[in-house]
Amino acid sequence: MSANYLLISLPKSTSTDERSLGGWLQTNINGGSVEVAKHELPGFKVGTLDSLVLQSEELSKVDQQLYGSIGKVLDIMASIHGESDVSHVAKQKVDGKYVDQFLETFRWNTSRFRLDKSIEELIKLISSEALNVDNDLRTTYTSYNQAKSNLAAAQRKQTGDLSVKSLHDIVRAEHFVLDSDHLQTVLLAVPKSLYESFINQYESLTEFVVPRSAQKIAQDSEYFLYSVTLFKKYVPAFLAKARDAKWIPREFDYSEEVIAKMRDEYQNASKEELTLKNDLLRLSKSAYSEIVSSWAHIKLLRTFVESVLRYGLPPDFYCYLLKLPQRAIEKSKQELIQRFGYLGGNAFSTDKKGNIVTDAKLHEYASLVDQDYEPFVLYEISLN
Fold this sequence. Notes:
46% of the residues lie in helices and 16% in strands. It is α+β, with helices and mostly antiparallel strands. It folds into two domains: 3-146 and 274-383, subunit c (vma5p) of the yeast v-atpase, domain 2, CATH 1.20.1460; 173-253, Alpha-Beta Plaits. The strands form four sheets. It has a four-stranded antiparallel β-sheet with strand order 2-9-1-12, sandwiched between helices. Strands 6-7-5-8 form a four-stranded antiparallel β-sheet, covered by helices on one side. The chain has a two-stranded antiparallel ribbon with strand order 3-4. The radius of gyration is 34 Å and the shape is rod-shaped. Keywords: Hydrogen ion transport, Ion transport, Transport. This is V-type proton ATPase subunit C. It comes from Ogataea philodendri.
């Protein structure tokens, strides 16, 4: 599901009648193929002009930050469900509603974000709660990825060849010299192509290798697994020369405790991965709802602040949400500018095609006019 909107705020001076303004939008935007929803802007506590300018800058930053967090939540959901599976996105809800329904029927939550607080306090409260959720989700996602890597490593040990796979179900106590002060048994994965050189050379690879101590424990399509017994003092030199000969040492200190631990490794890794995956699924759903809701509150608060800065006090303006196909967004923007472009005053005018033309009266200040500037409060919203 893709929800694409234009959020606009217009001073009440643009129309003497709210119904006629809504009717004009419904009839003239995108040839009438538009859904129009009216939003009520609460009566926030307005401070000084300087404070509003600072709040405008902060709201812009938080707006982008939370929007980025929403994208991150969706990326995490996609990674859990699989890159090609996007059906889960359409099923996500915000405060019990699908995202398009939530946006179109949005009302300020006065119980959570009381209107007796200043705009500055509201910005801090809303953003801090949302970003805490975002941080919790990212931490859990990191833990899940680590658990997934551990499981993959455990799976490789279960399914790999004798040079890498776990040996806990292959070796037995009788393959080792145990409880000796002087002797030690080592394990080697010998490529089958090197079998003869191994048999002919292992006894003389270093001093004090026990003659005829090589035992074949197992084999697969690529390797033989052998044990060799020698004096402990010469084990490091023996293993170094074994590597030079392309025999692969397998580090394994036999004990029943180690065997039991290795036997449980895959089961424990699988259990941890599943637990964290389920935790991440639950947290990502709640994070999506929380962050989208917080972002919507910030968006409405930003609309209010920008409207006061644009249209002045007392706050007296209409706010509408226009639902449109993505392909109609730019066309609809131009239709709105054609109708309400005069609100931009000297800083903004359009030619017959609706393109921005900087007023010649601005002279040397003309270059300071932002080319992305709109003549009224207008935001594009796209949530997938």
